[in-house]
Design a protein that fits this description.
Blueprint: E1 29-33, E2 38-42, E3 47-52, E4 55-58, H1 70-87
Antiparallel strand pairs: 1-2, 2-3, 3-4
The structure holds zinc ion (2 copies).
Length: 92
């Protein structure tokens, strides 16, 4: 059995590329360049994402340089963060 590097399932995310929003599963992602990083803005749920060590992480809008949607991002992030605090036990 030989392994062909380029033969991958279509649905598998490629390293460094986000094809689908992990939150709302939209594929309408906008690439945001902040100088040295590549981020992905989801226009559907107004969240910014970054791929870090092959994991998708949510960006704090305060560090989302180059994002043209920082105001929307910040509002969304703040409301999400508040919801997490309210619904999570202390220390969780
Ligand atoms: Zn989304
Ligand atoms: Zn952003």
């Amino acid at each position: 059995m030989s392994t062909i590097p380029n033969a991958r399932p279509v649905s598998a995310p490629r390293l460094g590329t986000l094809v689908r929003c992990p939150e709302c599963h939209s594929t309408e992602l906008e690439v945001v360049l902040d100088g040295c990083n590549v981020n992905f803005y989801c226009a559907s749920c107004i969240r910014c994402w970054h791929i870090e060590l092959n994991r998708v992480v949510r960006i704090d809008p305060a560090t989302c340089y180059g994002c043209a949607h920082v105001n929307e991002c910040s509002a969304r992030f703040a409301s999400d963060h508040r919801a997490e605090i309210e619904s999570s036990p202390v220390g969780a």
